[in-house]
């Protein structure tokens, strides 16, 4: 049981709000020493884990880049550009992103993300389309649009990624099923996931167009008055 001391260290460290990285590192070293692992071997294991997961640092590096882009008007320019497209609507913008995001996930391409794409780019485009079509919209509808854009990222990523044979979720499913004595390969899981990915693109698109219709009904008078003024 003493080998589980690392868990206790992590719990205490989090309760005391200590530096997360330091707490996890200390917990790993202490666990290794208690388990009788030589210190050089512990360092080697930690180094290998860092190298194997170094792609996570790419996400961290992207955050300040996105912050700088937002600081210098990325959101405003995205809304301005989409506002120039008269036929653009919230539903069309969101449905197009759903298709692109799902297809990218199916081919294992890391396109998208709430932080990298939704907040700085897709959400402003959807809001710009709404404001271009209806003028000012109520705060509650701004929140609905935020919810739709958060949902579309989840739809595309969650249902599309399992159609890629090397996706982590696929490998996890294969591992669990093989432990339960089911004969299955990653390709089998990917093939079974393709119809689901196609279905979510259709269902999601219908949902987004449904909200277009709701917004048209709610702000229809305003839309007609804008056309009459032209």
From TrEMBL:
Signal peptide: none annotated. InterPro entries: DUF969. The chain crosses the membrane at residues 7-35, 55-74, 158-177, 189-210. It holds the Pfam family DUF969. Keywords: Membrane, Transmembrane, Transmembrane helix. This is Permease. It comes from the Bacteria.
């Amino acid at each position: 049981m003493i080998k589980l001391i690392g868990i206790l260290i992590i719990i205490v460290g989090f309760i005391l709000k200590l530096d997360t990285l330091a707490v996890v590192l200390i917990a790993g070293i202490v666990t290794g020493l208690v388990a009788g692992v030589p210190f050089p071997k512990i360092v080697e294991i930690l180094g290998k884990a860092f190298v194997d997961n170094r792609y996570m640092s790419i996400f961290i590096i992207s955050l300040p880049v996105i912050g700088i882009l937002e600081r210098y008007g990325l959101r405003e320019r995205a809304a301005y550009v989409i506002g120039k497209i008269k036929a653009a609507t919230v539903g069309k913008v969101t449905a197009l992103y759903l298709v692109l995001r799902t297809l990218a996930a199916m081919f294992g391409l890391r396109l998208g993300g709430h932080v990298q794409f939704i907040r700085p780019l897709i959400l402003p485009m959807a809001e710009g389309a709404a404001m271009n079509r209806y003028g000012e919209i109520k705060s509650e509808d701004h929140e609905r649009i935020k919810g739709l854009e958060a949902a579309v990222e989840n739809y595309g990523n969650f249902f599309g990624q399992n159609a890629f044979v090397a996706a982590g979720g696929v490998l996890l499913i294969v591992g669990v099923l093989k432990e339960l004595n089911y004969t299955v390969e990653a390709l089998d899981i990917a093939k079974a996931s393709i119809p689901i990915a196609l279905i979510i693109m259709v269902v999601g698109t219908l949902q987004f167009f449904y909200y277009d219709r709701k917004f048209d009904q709610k702000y229809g008078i305003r839309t007609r008055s804008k056309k009459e003024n032209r």
